[in-house]
Amino acid sequence: xxxxxxESDCExxxxxxxxxxxxxxxxxxxxxxxxxxxxxxxxxxxxxxVLTSTRETFRGKQVSVWLYTAPEERGKGxxxxxxxxxxxxxxxxxxxxxxxxxxxxxxxxxxxxxxxxFTYWFSSHLMGYDGPNLPxxxxxxxxxCEDLFDDYVRLxxxxxxxxxxxxxxxxxxxxxxxxxxAAERKELQGSADSIYFFQHNGDIVGMVTLGSNYIDNxxxxxxxxxxxxxxxxxxxxxNRLRERGVQRVVLGVVDTNTxxxxxxxSMDFTLVETHTFARKHS
Length: 282
What we know:
32% helix, alpha+beta
């Protein structure tokens, strides 16, 4: 009943996952195709499991597991059978930490993984906006270019440092000392049309990254916070995604980032899903 993933399985797995979880087709396909993956197939595909390659982290060698079963299959042993195959492969790996993530606002995923030795790490809320376009903004918008690389690194490190410390996400700096600047410059240049900086009176006050339908990495410079710039950047982001044909605009906010969540709620973003991340140590 458990077999290796085949590319043709995406025809079933993509709509299966999307019926219960907010993920883009390319994201699902990439997750399955670029890792070691299995499906539960008893004549009909009913679930999948993914095990990533080992990577070196602050906590040593780490892998991540993603396990998904159709809602109607839960409690019938499908998830357990998929986990047993993953556990068998884990037993042959020399890893220090196994991470996972799951939707935790419904179902028994927290209990399922707790019974397998995982402990809570942190949670993130997916929020969505379905309202009208918003007013224009009074900030100057500057598309990313290589001259802004140092500002991108600085704003990213400063903007997420406290959040990563509170939630024990290592390294605390997204770009720690000694990071591969050349590789990062190349990667950013490849996605330059999705990154925007914002200026007021010649000063950079913030930045944002826009995905296919989502707002990501919104940072307001610490020197310019509580001046309404975050709201203006949100307005720009929603309108720009709408120009691309997006109806529901989504974003993620870590549970501990209560100030950001209050801003999003004040702009009529509503909760879509809650995801929990958990880990176990070997």
